[in-house]
Amino acid sequence: MRQAVLVEPKHIEFREVEAPKASDLKEHQVLLNIKRIGICGSEIHSYHGCHPATFYPVVQGHEYSAVVVATGAAVTICKAGDVVTARPQLACGKCKPCQRGEYNICEELRVQAFQANGAAQDFFVVDDDRIAVLPEGMSLDYGAMIEPVAVAAHATMRGGDLKGKNVVVSGAGTIGNLVAQFAKARGAKRVLITDVSDFRLEIARKCGIVDTLNVAKTSLKEGAKRLFGDEDFQAAFEVAGVESSIRSLMECIEKGSTIVVVAVFGKDPSLDMFYLGEHELKVNGTMMYRHEDYLTAIDQVSSGAIRLEPLISNHFPFEQYDEAYKFIDENGATSMKIIIKL
């Protein structure tokens, strides 16, 4: 079978390896035929050698949809022919976070496509406790996007109860867009999404986020005041990964409110910690997701509460994996989610 291996930064190599056999499955394993793979921002960092936790060489792919080929003897969650996706987290199950059920922050966490081989191959074996069955009729493309939707599901949960609150999301890339959509789905009163790209803000509007702000043209302080008036906003999500973004959120959010840091910062920001303390702001981190977030993501996409079609920019065949990255480099300002077809 084929594998797409990131041998080193900017070097993808296609290898032919022996396919796993159904007869070799352990009792709780599932053999998948991979159909779609989404390329995420973290993998773009890996491709450029900018991801500090990527081990080279590594098989690509952690956002995917697949068809079940065979199951181990004890598997009950799925059967041959089902269309599924699966979490890419490999947790130890023994550390304190794992014992609390918080395996997304496992002390020994490995993530497939970064510290362990991913799904960019024709066939892939996964433990059944990471499988999520997709509903009949959900497209393979949407199935491959459940992973980033689950990121948004978990991040918005980290923001506390959003019902009736005004919310600001800074950064309108794929994850920021999905966070904004999920804030709406969780009952936020109004959601303002900001960016410096009119293209990304237009995509947000196509996804139902009607309130948008280009902070390169109008400051967050002015834009938020115009939209929320004296109500202010009570929750914010930092998805841009730049110092000016989180500083603006801190300066403009209502006292005693919560900011969730979703983005990975390339450079640590310098923040006014006295201001943070004096305003009793709560700054929460968020790390990936747990299985319940996958199930919530599937439900919200199925119901139509989360719109994915406007986010899908292009498809590339498996053989053009490298070309897909080059396309992203050349067209990043006018593209969102790129999907690989097997």
TrEMBL record:
Single GO term (MF): metal ion binding
Domain Alcohol dehydrogenase-like C-terminal: 175-302
Gene3D superfamilies assigned: Medium-chain alcohol dehydrogenases, catalytic domain, NAD(P)-binding Rossmann-like Domain
Swiss-Prot/TrEMBL cofactor(s): Zn(2+)
Keyword Calcium listed: no
Keywords associated with the record: Metal-binding, Oxidoreductase, Zinc
Any Pfam family: ADH_N
UniProt keyword Cell division present: no
Domain Alcohol dehydrogenase-like N-terminal, residue spans: 27-135
Domain of life: Bacteria
Assigned protein family: Belongs to the zinc-containing alcohol dehydrogenase family.
Protein known as: Chlorophyll synthesis pathway, bchC
Organism: Bacteroides xylanisolvens CL03T12C04
